[in-house]
Automatic annotation (TrEMBL), chains A, B:
SUPFAM superfamilies found in the cross-reference section: Glutathione synthetase ATP-binding domain-like, NAD(P)-binding Rossmann-fold domains, Succinyl-CoA synthetase domains
InterPro entries, alphabetized: Acyl-CoA_Synth/Transferase (IPR051538), ATP-grasp (IPR011761), ATP_grasp_subdomain_1 (IPR013815), CoA-bd (IPR003781), Ligase_CoA_dom (IPR043938), NAD(P)-bd_dom_sf (IPR036291), Succ_CoA_lig_flav_dom (IPR032875), Succinyl-CoA_synth-like (IPR016102)
GO molecular function: acetate-CoA ligase (ADP-forming) activity; ATP binding; metal ion binding
Similarity-based family: In the N-terminal section; belongs to the acetate CoA ligase alpha subunit family.
Pfam family, one: Succ_CoA_lig
Annotated ranges, domain ATP-grasp: 493-539
Protein name: Acetate--CoA ligase [ADP-forming] I
Ligase is among the record's keywords: yes
E.C. number(s) listed in UniProt: 6.2.1.13
Keywords in alphabetical order: ATP-binding, Ligase, Nucleotide-binding
Length: 700, 700
């Protein structure tokens, strides 16, 4: 864990040593010095190179040990094999932070990997903040600091960007130049030997000059830490991220690129969502959203009002709106009256409000003023196409004027090229996001409303319920002792009892006489299930008989089950059968599972039993520990949820009962990281409650 | 139906009368004349205005009857109520084509609608090609014709654009200015009183100057005609369209905008697909694809090779690739050898080929040359980020040079802004699509490969099978006579027999004794189903008993069914029960339906029985008549298809049996438009074949 003091040395150093500075233009060691000077760095700057002399009028120090004062920060641009030596000397010189530009470490194979580990170790021992290696450098526009090998320097702004890909950084910087987009901080993480995405996220969360954080990630190193930090940051400011490697091909490319294994895609996607991070899937969306979040307030409801001078784009906006789950609310009666007065008779005064192709700026102004105070409007989108009558700059001015006194977010979409250009520039300069098409504008509003909902979600309830962790420990210890990976059913049942999972009353019996006696005690109807340490899935051997009503049926079932099992698995030792009280017969069947994700820890999943999950992939995921809200969300997130609510005239099932089970499993997963996998399948659930009729636990 | 001769008069007229020409700059009637002159129109030009005088040095004709020669084409920009009068005079003056710019017709209410009908009628009677009203006009760059009220004139090019929204036309023209994108034709359809989208599509299909057609549609007037024409056009050139109003909100906005009812979304989407039209969902994709289709050959396979100077964008491209169903194929051994020789040791020579951040143009050139002749590569994407070493213009030149001798499509993605600008401009000028992000580039390649597959689909097989249409007619006539909407089961069964649908042997019986006798004749096991003209859905009254094995079971079932039905529906007349042979018991259940779509005719759907269709919407649609290929596609298109193929260790079902039923239903729907709706539900299907165990037919 890096301290904040050191972060200050990295981002706003009083003095900088450039180790590997070069006199030759074109060399990275030259570019760094020239970028620092060009950006107007105010602190002390020490180029270091054994050749001595001068670089860009600065005297060159010939060795690290000759530095006149301990540098706050050092940038290293040396050949790979010299980096670790330089770091050692810098440590002696009492440096606080180091950024390593040099590449050729982990990403190139075993030798590089070991060198990188040594660097990381050194930094940790000497308490040096390490950025990189294989970093493009970093920028802090608010300190006139450009310590990168990029060619462009961004404008000052409120967006912080961090990226695991250096090349992407240079692309973004180049692109930002032409787009009037400003940045507060810019960090190229490189191989993340020292600073991880979680460290950087935390620092940017505390940075007063940053309003919005955007990031590009390929892998997450410590999922739990990332999640914990990110959760705190998203309370303070929006975080928008693109996670690369979300497909098999992408993951393969990631691992060949960074030398790190990509974690499970569902786990990382669950992590981002549970941390309140806005996940996007392409770069365009990343920057579209960054700008909108930086410049406009959040919509406080789902109602978007569209004002347009042409029907077609209005329809496209309406389509996008419904796809995004936003509403085109009908304006209030008062607004409608104002619009009727202000607009010509053929205008459409509902929503989209079509002020027709001959609209000049005054019509936009009157309409927007009415809509700005409309009680049913949470966000406004002003569309303009360059009709013959359109007054482009005056319309832009009208939008800017209305936005000044309006607490709702206002977005513009000016469609076209050269003619609308000046209007577009005015809007962007005034902080009004201006899109080229209606669809991305609507998607930005959708994301901002989702973030509003995230900030206003119910306060996470600490779930507190009785459990017997000691008993759980005993179960695990016992299994460990015998060396079993999968717990025997009776032990699994003990674990279930310890976590108060609703399980049917069960007896283990060894003869059919015992079975009949047990059934009598439990009360008919009962179920009979084969027990064998060699049979993981009873379904495979047809080892289950349900709904047995009489002693006769129990005896017949015993015979059937045991003969079938012996025929199918002559190698299996039959320990006997379980006799269980029957769960509800007309219930729905659902599954709750968890597995341990290598990056993010226990990943809980929920689905129905059957093809919706197996074939259509209708499964919802969350990382443990779950909040009550998480448990409620996960149940409602599957597309098949209407079936649980009773979509087809059936009775709804008890969602609370499922949520209880999810929370218990979350607790179990958190208490026992040694449980590698757990599956409750099936859980029978009806209006009254739920019953876990089978469960499997595997320990690692 | 408009003749091609008239189309020539509209698109390439020898003489033009501008009716409502005006001397005042800013008036539409002035803008039209000035646009015609500015674009360099070579034919005779007659401004018409009762005030006489001169407009832009042209003598003004004061009345239509005074025109010196019959004009090939006339453009009308008069107040609404004068339009029809002018059209009548123009008809007398023997005009061939008219474009009406004036708005305020159908879209404004009843009066306007009637005026528009009168115009359409006049045009039809006088054989005048009518574009509009409410049109922005039209452009033919290859005749120097700009007969629009738009402010910009596009460059010459190979893309034809037609649009139902005029405002969108002006936005596009303005945008195209800055994007170096050229057009061949540009048509604003307006209210489509005369020329419809189908007419225009056909004409553009025959236009030698057009390589790609793109269109924006809100409604389709004659679905069948559109489908027929579009099918022919897509054989000749790609057609890319955006259909607005694809959501409820969008459809509402459409109808308030155009005054036309939007047809069913699934039907229009099926129509576009069956016609081979590429449907896109936002404007950005429309133009991205237009440019790529216009400039590059189609990929002849799904294998994309990505060449990049940075890992991150390579991963994003790989993700996009898998999402798009394309493959990142491993290059051939020979290519790998060339790459090993040409690239530094840390380069990734598989795919994405990462030539690393210090790559200069020569490394791009060597890699692209190797990949251009690689036997496993069908398309190439060259990614560049502006690293410190990047040679942007030289790299653009390398791509251009390789593309010149390469028969495979080549796409570029230069990420950034100012620095990459010159490279981007070079590529675009050389006809190489250059994207700002990897994702849209991959989506363009996906669409082009899909079009390649469309062109190379198996030749549509004319399906020929025995049917007894006469018998079908009798059934319909009988139902009509009695005034029934829903056919009685026995008649529906007759219809099914006429179309050789596989139905179980069935007897209608009126007593339980008869039922037992029928069961004996048919052979056990049997099913028993209630029959009542008042009960549409037997499931509602539990009026079905299956798998009856003995006379006793039949009698019991008879009692059960009839009592239950009488209790639940005391108003219903019970005509008796059906006794049926049982279909396969362990079969899958599927549904085939059709309904008559008001715009596109019979729309056939296919799904499984159960929640996958009802709750998750997993239903596939096609318009009748189906080809054999359509029938095969529709079965495979549902996401649940793996269940039919036997995903979970079950036996696969007979797909051919389902396809036969689909084709029979397609024939029935085509033969009898008076059948409003038909539903075969459920159809039992197993490995051997299928059986339709219940069906309902409703006539209009």
């Amino acid at each position: 864990m890096q301290s904040n003091t050191n972060f200050h040395s990295l981002l706003c150093p009083d003095s900088i040593a450039v180790v590997g500075a070069s006199r030759k233009p074109g060399k990275l060691g030259h570019l760094i010095v020239s970028n620092l000077i060009r950006a107007g760095y105010k602190g002390k700057l020490f180029p270091v190179n054994p050749a001595g002399g001068e670089i860009l009028d600065l005297p060159v120090i010939s060795a690290i040990k000759d530095l006149p004062t301990p540098p706050d920060m050092a940038i290293i641009a040396l050949p790979r094999d010299k980096v670790i030596g330089a770091m050692k000397e810098l440590a002696k010189a009492d440096v606080s932070a180091i950024c390593v530009i040099t590449a050729g470490f982990r990403e190139t194979g075993r030798d590089g990997f070991e060198l990188e580990m040594a660097m990381a170790d050194l930094a940790r021992r000497k308490n040096i903040t390490l950025l990189g290696p294989n970093s493009l450098g970093l920028i802090n526009t608010h300190c006139n600091l450009n310590a990168t090998i990029a060619q462009s320097i961004p404008q000052k702004g409120a967006i912080a960007f961090f990226s695991q890909s250096g090349a992407l950084c240079s692309a973004i910087l180049d692109w930002a130049d032409g787009e009037h987009i400003g940045f507060s901080k810019f960090l190229s993480l490189g191989n993340k030997a020292g600073l991880s995405e979680a460290d950087v996220l935390e620092a940017l969360g505390d940075d007063p000059e940053t309003k919005v954080i955007i990031g590009y990630l390929e892998s997450v190193d410590d999922g739990e830490k990332f999640l914990r930090k990110a959760r705190m940051v998203t309370e303070k400011k929006p975080v928008i991220m693109i996670k690369a490697g979300t497909t098999q091909s992408g993951a393969r490319a990631t691992s060949s690129h960074t030398g790190s294994m990509a974690g499970s895609v569902v786990a990382s996607s669950a992590a981002l969502r549970q941390a309140g991070i806005i996940q996007v899937h392409d770069l365009e969306a990343l920057f579209d959203l960054a700008r909108s979040f930086a410049e406009q307030p959040l919509p406080q409801g789902p109602n978007l009002t569209v004002v347009t001078n042409s029907g077609g784009p209005g329809i496209l906006a309406a389509d996008a709106c419904e796809d995004a789950g936003l509403h085109l609310a009908r304006p209030s009666q008062k607004t409608l009256e104002k619009l009727t007065e202000a607009l010509p008779p053929f205008a459409a005064i509902y929503n989209p409000i079509d002020i027709i192709g001959d609209a000049k700026a005054d019509r936009y102004r009157a309409t927007l003023e009415a809509v700005a105070v409309d009680e049913f409007t949470n966000a406004i989108l002003a569309l303009l196409t360059p009709t013959a009558s359109a007054e482009i700059e005056a319309t832009a001015q009208a939008i800017i004027d209305v936005a000044e006194h309006c607490e709702k977010p206002i977005f513009a979409c000016f469609m076209g090229g050269e003619r609308i250009g000046p209007g577009r520039d005015m809007l962007i300069a005034a902080g009004i996001p201006c899109y080229a098409y209606p669809e991305p504008a609507v998607r930005a509003i959708e994301a901002m409303y989702a973030h509003y909902q995230w900030l206003n979600r119910p306060y996470p309830v600490e779930v507190c319920f009785r459990r017997d962790k000691g008993k759980g420990k005993q179960v695990i210890r016992k299994a460990r002792k015998v060396g079993l990976k999968e717990l025997p059913f009776s032990d699994a049942m003990d674990m279930a009892l310890a976590y108060e999972l609703p399980i049917p009353e069960t007896r283990l019996v060894r003869t059919s006489d015992q079975a009949v006696r047990a059934a009598k005690k439990l009360g008919y109807p009962v179920a009979l299930k084969i027990v064998s340490p060699h049979i993981a899935n009873r379904g495979d051997v047809d080892g289950i008989a349900l709904d047995l009503h009489t002693p006769r049926e129990v005896r017949d079932a015993w015979l059937d089950i045991t003969t079938r099992t012996q025929r199918k698995r002559p190698d299996a030792y039959l320990a006997g059968c379980l006799v269980q009280t029957m769960g509800p017969i007309k219930a729905r069947e659902v599954i709750v599972r968890f597995t341990q994700d290598p990056q993010f820890g226990p990943l809980i999943s929920f689905s129905l039993v059957g093809p919706s999950a197996e074939v259509l992939g209708d499964i919802a995921y969350r990382l443990a520990p779950l909040t009550l809200q998480d448990a409620q969300d996960i149940v409602r997130e599957i597309k098949s949820f209407p079936l649980l609510r009773g979509a087809r005239g059936e009775d709804p099932v008890s969602l609370a009962a499922i949520e209880d089970i999810l929370l218990s499993m979350s607790q179990m997963a958190t208490d026992f990281p040694e449980i590698q996998e757990a599956e409750l399948n099936p859980i029978l659930v009806d209006t009254e409650g739920a019953m876990v009729t089978d469960l499997r636990l595997t320990i690692g």
